[in-house]
Amino acid sequence: MDLQRALQGGALSAKALLRARELGVCVRCCLRFADIDDLDVYACSEEKLVDAIHQYVKESGVLEFEPLEVAGCTCCVGVLNGAFHEKILADVQQLADKDDYDVKAFALNIKLPSVVLLREYSLLKFLRSDVENFPRKMPFDMKDVLKVTCRGG
After folding, report:
1. Which of 13, 14, 32, 135 could form a disulfide with 57 if both were Cys (CB 3.0 to 4.6 A apart)?
2. What is the spatial distance between Cα 95 and Cα 93, in angstroms, rounded to a whole number?
3. Which residues have a Cβ under 8 Å from the Cβ of 80 and sit 6 or more positions away?
4. Measured at the alpha carbon of residue 110, what is the angle toward residues 39 and 153, in degrees to the nearest 5?
């Protein structure tokens, strides 16, 4: 899978991508805003995604790009962060092992807090007024990204 091709085919310009990153938006939310629907892209590591975005912005001629470390995304509040998933899955695994369940396969259901949708709406409204030609389409669904990142691809 070619991350550069996915970014170039996405709905966000390098300038719009940079603006979203400046506002503390994580790489996976940036990809959602770019309407990238290839789930294999979201399964990549944070480091690989940040490197691909850095390369895309650099090739687009946007000079002031610095790869930002986004600790808590202003949109998803860290729900799409790989470290978040690892912690949850490790906790579930530990509980399953400790309680010695007969069944070793589980379905993990996660309900997104409504504040996440409110943050997404507010952030998109701001970006659409602040960045020229920012996409009007609703971004790729966060739940779909969450499913693929939690199971690791």
Report:
1. 14
2. 6
3. 26, 28, 29, 42, 73, 142, 145, 146, 149
4. 25
| Phi and psi, residue 113, nearest 5° | -65, 140
Measuring CA to CA, which residue among 54, 48, 84 is closest to residue 66? Answer: 54
Q: What are phi and psi of 49, to 5 degrees?
A: -65, -45
Looking at residue 102, what is its pLDDT? 78
Structure token digits, residue 120: 């997404």
Task: Provide DSSP, 60-106.
Answer: TT-TT------SS-TTTTTTT-HHHHHHHHHHHHHHHHHTT-S----
Phi, psi of 106 (to 5 degrees): -130, 150
Tell me the per-residue pLDDT of 66-110, one tens digit each, with 9 for 90 and over.
Answer: 656 656 889 988 888 777 777 777 887 788 788 877 777 777 777
87-97 confidence digits (pLDDT tens)? 777 887 788 78
Whose structure tokens read 């701001």?
126
Q: Tell me if 141 sits within 8 A of 36, measured CB to CB.
A: no
In which residue are the tokens 């590591």 written? 45
